[in-house]
Request: fold
Amino acid sequence: MITRENIIQVRGLKKAYDMGDQRIWALDGITLDIARGEFVAVMGPSGSGKSTLMNMFGCLDSPTVGDISINGEIVSNLSSHKLAEVRNKMIGFVFQQFNLLARTSALENVMLPLFYSKLDKVHWKPRALSCLNKVGLADRTEHFPSQLSGGQQQRVAIARALVNEPPIILADEPTGALDTRTGRDIMELLQRLNTLGQTIILVTHETDVAEYASRHLIVRDGKLISDKLAGLDDDTNKPCQIRAKS
Reply:
């Protein structure tokens, strides 16, 4: 069995929120590994903890108990400044509502994350153009979001997520604001990026969207209740063995 390097490691992860005199556990003891180059779908009903788990992966929140490591670095107790550095270097975000600046061209939207990078400014435009070309929008660089379809706007958002060349892409309901056909196009794009080696973690409540991923995690009541490779019937609460892509 060939194994791959783990890019995310989670150990005993718990997250609590205090609501008046009550303590609510959004995550309750999750342990798992995600290998570099995997395509993982995180699923669960509303309030299950899947969005909280995604926030942990994205260094947008810190656990109450437990540790999370990204690319070998424990990030659980980093300062907000250090977490911002990790996010900018390691993680690209794709959101349901695109989050593009309305008065800014596609090219300029894609270049935005580079303002916080150490990349020499002379390389910004070529890098952004390359990312737009990768998502099939080389002919839409000067268009504003209002001049683009929903699917094209999401492609710009994906290009923006790629521009810093992060090893991890976090996609939070990336097809939620799209029609079925356009959503399928976006998922096929993410799948192609994954075949090129991009690690992708997807949050979705739609089973047909999750089918594009090679591994499915199901969260309920803050616990990981299922962790399986796509196409297998047996569920397990233990981290499954990761199969290398041929």
Summary: Residues 37-50+79-229 form a domain with the Rossmann fold fold (CATH 3.40.50.300). The first helix runs from residue 50 to 57. Residues 92 and 169 are 5 Å apart (CA to CA). The first strand starts at residue 6 and ends at 19.
